[in-house]
Amino acid sequence: MSVIIRQAGPEDMDAICNMINGLSVYRESPPEAMPDVDEIRTFLFSADTAAEAYICEIEGDIAGYAVISLGYSTWPGRYSLNVEDLYSTPDYRGRGAGKAMLQYIAQLAVSRRCNRIEWNVLEWDKSAKDFYRSIDALPLSEWVRYRLDGPALERFASQEAL
């Protein structure tokens, strides 16, 4: 089986948007949650972006995509890779596309001297959690992730500090 992982380019926008839509359906997100195509293009492919997008092709067919970005942790004094999206199309789930992409991301992390890769998993996504455990990834139990978004973010940002 021929598997190719390559950096995505603007010419991949239709495929990426279709997969983002597929991810939205998988996550049971409302259709209006889908971001604007031009915003996605800007965030993934502008000159000053911190994001990197990758495409997985199996036998010439697009089988999935991943979006990553670098983060920095002062505690180990090293960069880490954050995986924002890791998506396999339904036809390629369980056939190695996700594992190939995550292994490629691991190789990027090692080559960039990152000390870790981190990502989020929905609580109900048993198949994803089983897959991650199968590669020795561990859920973080000592950290609780928080989110400030939407109106709460706007409200907090507009408040006067002290």
Provide a descriptive summary of the structure in words:
This protein is an alpha+beta fold and 162 residues long. Helix content is 35%, strand content 25%. It has 5 helices and 5 strands. Strand 2 (51-58) and strand 3 (61-73) form a beta hairpin. The radius of gyration is 17 Å and the shape is globular. This is N-acetyltransferase family protein. Residues 3-160 form the N-acetyltransferase domain. It comes from Erwinia plantamica.
Keyword list:
162 residues, alpha+beta, 5 helices, 5 strands, 35% helix, 25% strand, globular
Order of helices and strands: EHHEEEHEHH
Count of separate DSSP helical elements: 5
The computed structural class is: alpha+beta
Strand order across the biggest sheet? 1-2-3-4-5
Rg: 17 Å
Unreliable stretches = none
Number of strands: 5
What proportion of the residues is helical, as a percent range? Answer: 25-40%
Largest beta-sheet characterization:
5 strands, mixed
Q: How far is the first residue's CA from the last residue's CA?
A: 60 Å
Morphology call = globular
> Please, what is the average pLDDT?
92
* Percent of residues in β-strands: 15-25%
Give a short overview.
This protein has 162 residues and is α+β, with helices and mostly antiparallel strands. It contains five helices and five strands; from the N terminus they run E-H-H-E-E-E-H-E-H-H. It has a five-stranded mixed sheet, with helices on both faces.
